[in-house]
Amino acid sequence: MTDTVFITGAASGIGLASARAFAAAGYNLVLSDLDPDRCTDATKDIDAPKSVHRVDVRDKASIEAAFAAGAASFGPITHCHANAGVSNMKPALELSEDDWDFNFSVNAKGVFFTNQVAVAHFLAHGCKGAIVNTASLAAKVGAPLLAHYSASKFAVLGWTQALAREHARDGIRVNAVCPGFVRTAMQDREIAWEAELRDMTPEQVLQDYIDQTPLGRIETAEDVADVVVFLASDGARFMTGQGVNVTGGVYMT
């Protein structure tokens, strides 16, 4: 039986790179995004069995519907990459309740809902499935100007560890990746915000990211996606509850 992976936030960035990496590894793809048309267009060149679904990760019913539709097409879904995420940037004392709620509703609650649906699906179909959640460097070290984002990603790590412990005896593995400074559309927005907040040019902000990275370059979405596929694979069969750093050495603990 061919393995099938469910991916959230698959229209761009790490989610899109993950879709390409899983396709190269031979998986069927159940791709989801808040903008399914953009996801369909972004993935049209991926040569793998795939379906695309509109999912708002803040709405558990939409995740359940996408899982059901994917399983109807390919059989039981065996892997999940809970990747959808958002950010915005402000000093901590200027954050509004809406800023806090927006980050937590997508980054933390979205992972919570997606993982719940995935584990229930695995159990119902007798799958020893694997989940990989997208956390962040900001889940290991609190990030200035991203306090609310950091808090939401710390929540992802805590949830990942607890869920991994609860379902290890079911043969279900749950891990997370913690990327560093990844060049994506989200980072492009953050660079512009940070440049304004720190009275720097975008070029100076980007160079600061590179200077903080021992491997000496900006991370790519593909750097992360390859680790996601590894954590989903049998090569990581004895790994669960881990928050794996993929930071180019920015964080090493």
From TrEMBL:
SUPFAM superfamilies: NAD(P)-binding Rossmann-fold domains (SSF51735)
Residues annotated as transmembrane: none
GO BP: any one term: fatty acid elongation
Entry's Gene Ontology molecular function annotations: oxidoreductase activity, acting on the CH-OH group of donors, NAD or NADP as acceptor
Pfam families reported for this sequence: adh_short_C2
PANTHER family, alphabetized: 3-OXOACYL-[ACYL-CARRIER-PROTEIN] REDUCTASE, CHLOROPLASTIC, SHORT-CHAIN DEHYDROGENASES/REDUCTASES FAMILY MEMBER
Protein family (similarity comment): Belongs to the short-chain dehydrogenases/reductases (SDR) family.
Protein name: SDR family oxidoreductase
Biological source species: Mangrovicoccus algicola
